[in-house]
Known about the structure:
The structure holds two protein chains of two kinds.
Chain A: H1 31-34, H2 40-72, E1 75-76, E2 84-85, H3 89-95, H4 98-129, H5 136-144, H6 151-162, H7 168-175, H8 190-216, H9 219-227, H10 232-243, H11 245-262, H12 264-270, H13 282-292, H14 296-317
Antiparallel strand pairs in A: 1-2
Chain B: H1 11-28, E1 38-45, H2 49-62, E2 66-73, H3 77-89, E3 96-100, H4 104-109, H5 117-120, H6 133-136, E4 153-154, E5 158-159, E6 161-165, H7 166-171, H8 183-193, E7 195-197, E8 200-207, H9 213-222, H10 239-253, E9 257-258, H11 260-265, H12 268-274, E10 278-283, H13 288-294, E11 299-302, E12 313-316, E13 318-322, H14 324-329, H15 331-341, H16 347-353, H17 368-371, H18 381-385, E14 390-391, H19 399-419, H20 423-445
Parallel strand pairs in B: 1-2, 1-3, 8-9, 8-10, 12-14
Antiparallel strand pairs in B: 3-13, 4-13, 5-12, 6-10, 6-11, 7-8
Helix pairs in contact in B: 2-16, 9-10, 10-19, 12-13, 19-20
Amino acid sequence: xxxxxxxxxxxxxxxxxxxxxxxxxxxxxxxxxxxxxxxxxxxxxxxxxxxxxxxxxxxxxxxxxxxxxxxxxxxxxxxxxxxxxxxxxxxxxxxxxxxxxxxxxxxxxxxxxxxxxxxxxxxxxxxxxxxxxxxxxxxxxxxxxxxxxxxxxxxxxxxxxxxxxxxxxxxxxxxxxxxxxxxxxxxxxxxxxxxxxxxxxxxxxxxxxxxxxxxxxxxxxxxxxxxxxxxxxxxxxxxxxxxxxxxxxxxxxxxxxxxxxxxxxxxxxxxxxxxxxxxxxxxxxxxxxxxxxxxxxxxxxxxxxxxxxxxxxxxxxxxxxxxxxxxx
Amino acid sequence: xxxxxxxxxxxxxxxxxxxxxxxxxxxxxxxxxxxxxxxxxxxxxxxxxxxxxxxxxxxxxxxxxxxxxxxxxxxxxxxxxxxxxxxxxxxxxxxxxxxxxxxxxxxxxxxxxxxxxxxxxxxxxxxxxxxxxxxxxxxxxxxxxxxxxxxxxxxxxxxxxxxxxxxxxxxxxxxxxxxxxxxxxxxxxxxxxxxxxxxxxxxxxxxxxxxxxxxxxxxxxxxxxxxxxxxxxxxxxxxxxxxxxxxxxxxxxxxxxxxxxxxxxxxxxxxxxxxxxxxxxxxxxxxxxxxxxxxxxxxxxxxxxxxxxxxxxxxxxxxxxxxxxxxxxxxxxxxxxxxxxxxxxxxxxxxxxxxxxxxxxxxxxxxxxxxxxxxxxxxxxxxxxxxxxxxxxxxxxxxxxxxxxxxxxxxxxxxxxxxxxxxxxxxxxxxxxxxxxxxxxxxxxx
Lengths: 328, 446
């Protein structure tokens, strides 16, 4: 199977995000011969017109808060007294804060047991529902259902599902003679229980992206593999998986960011960070610091560290490209 | 003889002044003869909306030309403070805001609430001595730049009482709780009322939030000690404190008392009692409207049991206060509303009819406006009688530190119940973190 065709040696390489589209007009002639080539200034004006509004919003809602958060991290401020400049002391305090260290560990744990299953299950389910069968549209709709339910509503629903007295999980286990545990009140089970909810919530987006990627695969590649004698498993591993690799990185980074930042609602509603800080992820701790203890400077320092870590991971998984598509 | 510039008005100026005087009086003075009019903005804690809507409607009916524009405040500690601090920074505070007792000092220092002595000393019928002293004192700032100011007027006089499900008692052929009950008796009865399926409790004898100050503060007092030491720091590892928490957490471990985390799972104390998952709960009058809506069985209330032969009961209140913006821009209307609110035929009458409050005004303790409401609860006298045993959370604890106290005592409970940690060790850990927060708060404020 060494000669199985992959996207690397395929005759039509897949376009990558950021690549320039081929400059060929519908008539097959370069556009410069058919219309006047715009000046650089004119092109820049158009670029500004299209990018400008987005950039303004991005600057107001993303850039400025990031800069403000960093500035705030250099102060001791409780929203009541005047802010007091303390330099980098908030950052130094992180190392000596056992709850911060615990939160970092719990966040890494949640990422590991949240991101990997999300990616693998999304891929597996997308492959399964990419085939047409009777009622496939109904099944697809059901898979996408979690995406339209709010995180808080989902968390309330799952809290009932996990309930040791009336929840269906323990009722089902009871029918099999198994005495189910109190999932959300167990230091061992609370985080996996939360992870299951988060994976369930994040699956639809992964499935949608994988479905789109699967439908972009050139059928000739599959046929060529079949001609070479590849079975379903070999086609999956050697043809389909390599062709969806860019999307895998995209899903990876979306879920990484999502699980780190967006899991707050689920954790807050289901466990409140407990029991015994076993689900006290960093974003929950930051919230407590900022709004329960009003330690906005220290909370901002932790947020800045979190931002840098996530930005670093994003750069590793999706490095910026030059105009030639070569990683910088 | 010195030459001074004397003002001699012309006839036209005199006439113009006379014409403008009534307009100026009506527009600027609270001593205006005209009835108050305009829009009064009030920020209301979300769980009070149902009981306060009829109050606002009644006020609008009593004052034609007045409109009450209310907005909702989240009732959770973090979100409430976040909302009001943000509104203060944006200069968007309402004329009157609601708050809870533990925020009195912080909101005063943050400029969210105004000193209510302005209202109490303004010559109206409502004065400081109109209120039950213990409840008004919760809003008396004890130290700092706002020292001696009163930054809230209690809406009700809430002390903790024992709610019990009469049907559960009848089914178990147990006599109802009475004034002679002590903690041991409560445990004995709660154990008989508890139902289990295998290792899982399906009905708790008592639902009680042990890490709630209204539970542990009176308990420690009853055992002859205090929560704070002479320096104002927590002493959770004292004999009395360890004994008190052990008394409660032993029963949580036995599955007889529902712990705080278990109560969250079964819908908080009111949800647990309403659904019949807890036969008794320890809570306050403010819960009565919710309980009446949810519970199907007959129920009533009784005095909190004694501990160590003495009776102390947790207390707390929510309050109203004008804001600095309200004082500056809409003082007349705000004061008129407050005066009407605390009158027997005004807000108090409407509010008590929803079962939500015990009037914080001693003159109304025996008023039929709330004592003659149809049962349940039948034994409404308990709510007023227990006020004399009220034991408040120390007002010197800053709100930021109280958030740490709540979180750390919850963790201590989980360590004891889930991990089998010794109570003294769990409390020692909690005490360390709490006193660190206390020291940090002091340093930050200094």
